[in-house]
Write a structure and sequence with these properties.
This protein has about 180 residues and is an alpha+beta fold. About 35% of the residues lie in helices and about 25% in strands. The protein has six helices and eight strands, in the order E-H-E-E-H-E-H-E-H-E-E-H-E-H. Helix 3 packs across helix 6.
Amino acid sequence: MRQVLLLRGINVGPRNRIAMPSLRERLTAAGFEDVRTYVQSGNVVLSSDAAPDELARQCERLVEEEYALSIDVLARTRDELAEVVQRNPLAEVALDPKRYQVRFCSAEPDPELVQRLSALATPSERLVAAGRELYAWHPDGVARSRLWAELGGRRLGVTATSRNWRTVTTLLAMAEE
């Protein structure tokens, strides 16, 4: 089964550095098949029969053992990622894929927390919660966005990591190959 691994906080600044060729080699040596990576921010597409949560735990252990890093990993099957793309609740307004973010979560965030986060959005920003994903549109960028600052932190109460829309759709295309 094709699956996507999303490593949180990889190769952002000087910390948590992992070369993607090395990660591909380690995952292949661990028995995973068809291992591919996309850009340097911890996006992996591979084949595995493991359940997504178990696959994520296996990858976390591998990263801990091989690189001495404690990194959160989320996994989605190809079908789950296809649902994320098909859902696309902000398609009408999110016109720049670099400013359209999907926050992948380990579980559904608390609805009250999502409501408080929505209140932080500027008039042009949007936030939509759909299952384990939060879709966020930041037309003016994320640099000064209070919403982005809260989404990017660990205050969601669940493990989470974000990818821009271009990365999400590219990962789906890779998983479908």
